[in-house]
Amino acid sequence: xxxxxxxxxxxxxxxxxxxxxxxxxxxxxxxxxxxxxxxxxxxxxxxxxxxxxxxxxxxxxxxxxxxxxxxxxxxxxxxxxxxxxxxxxxxxxxxxxxxxxxxxxxxxxxxxxxxxxxxxxxxxxxxxxxxxxxxxxxxxxxxxxxxxxxxxxxxxxxxxxxxxxxxxxxxxxxxxxxxxxxxxxxxxxxxxxxxxxxxxxxxxxxxxxxxxxxxxxxxxxxxxxxxxxxxxxxxxxxxxxxxxxxxxxxxxxxxxxxxxxxxxxxxxxxxxxxxxxxxxxxxxxxxxxxxxxxxxxxxxxxxxxxxxxxxxxxxx
Length: 316
Known about the structure:
Elements: E1 2-5, H1 9-25, E2 30-35, H2 41-46, E3 51-56, H3 64-78, E4 82-86, H4 89-102, E5 105-107, E6 112-116, E7 119-126, E8 131-136, E9 142-146, E10 163-168, E11 196-200, H5 211-219, E12 225-227, H6 229-234, E13 255-259, H7 265-271, E14 276-281, H8 288-291, E15 294-297, H9 300-314
Parallel strand pairs: 1-2, 1-4, 2-3, 3-10, 4-9, 5-9, 11-12, 11-13, 13-14, 14-15
Antiparallel strand pairs: 6-7, 7-8
Helix pairs in contact: 3-4, 5-9
């Protein structure tokens, strides 16, 4: 059986797509785990799960030690051979602990999972995206973490038949305690869900000039501004909410416009799955053009106002 878990519902739905494919190929079932979120169970069934296990627990926040114990119990009970975990901050910690408890193999941040020669095979980017490592498991269970936006959820099917199982599992109490939970301050944007993103890079001379990007984003009805690492991490012109790249956010919009971004591999790794990529750069040799569907070679201070006005006229 293939077990799926993430503390983010949307990421769980994405993992269920790959879990459904793997289970179907091996003639097995897919189990989705909900820890303390019973309301999500029916959605998991509608998106491909054969069984939704609802674990009732007194825990109010995520704790890797206790959550690993809960999943350990379920994996042993259902004899799960493959475990897919969402590769966010909590998921990575959980996967590592779970693998240690089970003495199992664990591969992080996979971008593809498939069967080859009857062995579970994974692909993941290494060396900042310059190469892809292809790895196979030689034992069970097999633990894999998958980042957001790698797979799209299956279309919702209310007629898909499945079973909801409620369980109470005593995970015990670890020595660590959560003393305080403080929400990170954000600007209220979510680049990971945006369908249109206009991004700025080191080609801008000063912070105020980023309004050129905002104006283009507005006329495209996207209203989402992204940026490369220097803008958020070095210059602090925008918050890290806007940062797109290997160390920032991974995005998958329908349209991505890169303005004054050279195209270092760390940035490309965060937006390479975009539907259509448009690059604007005055350097005809800029790496960004190798990843772009359309390229404009020119000074962004001249190109952006003209492009914004042209689109505004075209869209009425």
